[in-house]
């Protein structure tokens, strides 16, 4: 995904004035927040400088929170969701992506986001040992990890995603996850998050970028499609099952109604 970035930098007071909980042997004078625009105008990328670890490595490359309930696992994301008109939050290793609701101006949101990001107590341990993300055992594993039992083709797909495709998409404030591979169709299913989710250029990225690269390196791949969280194979199967059950119920009720009507007509005729 190609984009041009514009930066906005804001200087704030020394860190010891931002949070009484900041403890480190290396004294940092000032903290800066860089804002990078992404290809999706509803998503902005906030990068603290000097660089500091936001999402611990044990939680993977990125973690997205789409609502307040999901954000309970992260004190930082939870605080960001207290800001009105925040639609989703994505935490990266050294950055944060914030998605706004439709019709909201960044000029209105940025001061509140700055204030929350600059609360250094959410980046470092507090006296209560409150980390950025809670309960690591409840966090799902990265779908892009190569697992025992993965076929050779799936291993190649995941390796290509992680080494060649994912870094480029992450640079624009998004992420891409392996969702499945249809052997018969040669179809790779992926899920886009962050700035790439809902972005008008995401289809171009998939077809002219991801799909071309996949087909070039892996002959078994014929196409790449994006599936939303509510459009996974499992969800589609459940929907199809529900539709079939509804259709059967309708047909049974129709047959019963026709039978009742025929009985009434026969009784009326005999009478």
UniProtKB/TrEMBL annotation:
UniProt xrefs under InterPro entries: FSCA_dom_sf (IPR034904), Nfu/NifU_N (IPR014824), Nfu/NifU_N_sf (IPR036498), NFU1-like (IPR035433), NIF_FeS_clus_asmbl_NifU_C (IPR001075)
- Looking at the record, the residues that make up the Scaffold protein Nfu/NifU N-terminal domain are 33-126
Extract one GO cellular component term from the record.
mitochondrion
Single Gene Ontology BP annotation: iron-sulfur cluster assembly
Under Pfam families, the record lists: Nfu_N, NifU
From the UniProt record, which GO molecular function terms apply?
Answer: iron ion binding; iron-sulfur cluster binding
Identify its protein family: Belongs to the NifU family.
Q: What's the protein here called?
A: IscU
Source species of the chain? Blastocystis sp. subtype 1 (strain ATCC 50177 / NandII)
């Amino acid at each position: 995904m190609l984009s041009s970035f514009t930066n906005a930098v804001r200087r704030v007071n020394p860190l010891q004035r931002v949070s009484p909980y900041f403890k480190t042997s290396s004294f940092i004078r000032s903290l800066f927040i860089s804002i990078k625009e992404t290809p999706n105008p509803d998503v902005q990328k906030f990068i603290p400088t000097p660089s500091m670890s936001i999402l611990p490595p044990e939680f993977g490359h990125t973690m997205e929170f789409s609502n307040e309930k999901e954000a309970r696992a992260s004190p930082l994301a939870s605080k960001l969701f207290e800001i009105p008109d925040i639609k989703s939050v994505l935490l990266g290793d050294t950055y944060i992506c914030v998605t706004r609701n439709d019709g909201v101006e960044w000029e209105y949101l940025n001061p509140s986001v700055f204030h929350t990001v600059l609360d250094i107590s959410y980046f470092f341990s507090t006296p209560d040992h409150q980390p950025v993300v809670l309960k690591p055992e409840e966090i799902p594993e990265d779908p892009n990890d190569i697992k025992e039992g993965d076929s050779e083709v799936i291993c190649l797909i995941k390796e290509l995603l992680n080494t060649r495709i994912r870094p480029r998409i992450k640079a624009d404030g998004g992420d891409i996850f392996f969702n499945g591979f249809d052997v018969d169709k040669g179809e790779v299913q992926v899920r886009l998050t962050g700035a790439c989710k809902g972005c008008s250029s995401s289809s171009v990225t998939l077809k002219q970028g991801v799909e071309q690269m996949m087909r070039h390196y892996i002959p078994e791949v014929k196409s790449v499609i994006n599936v939303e969280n509510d459009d996974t194979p499992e969800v589609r199967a459940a929907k199809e099952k529900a539709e079939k059950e509804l259709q059967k119920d309708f047909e049974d009720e129709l047959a019963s109604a026709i039978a009742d009507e025929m009985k009434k007509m026969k009784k009326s005729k005999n009478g």
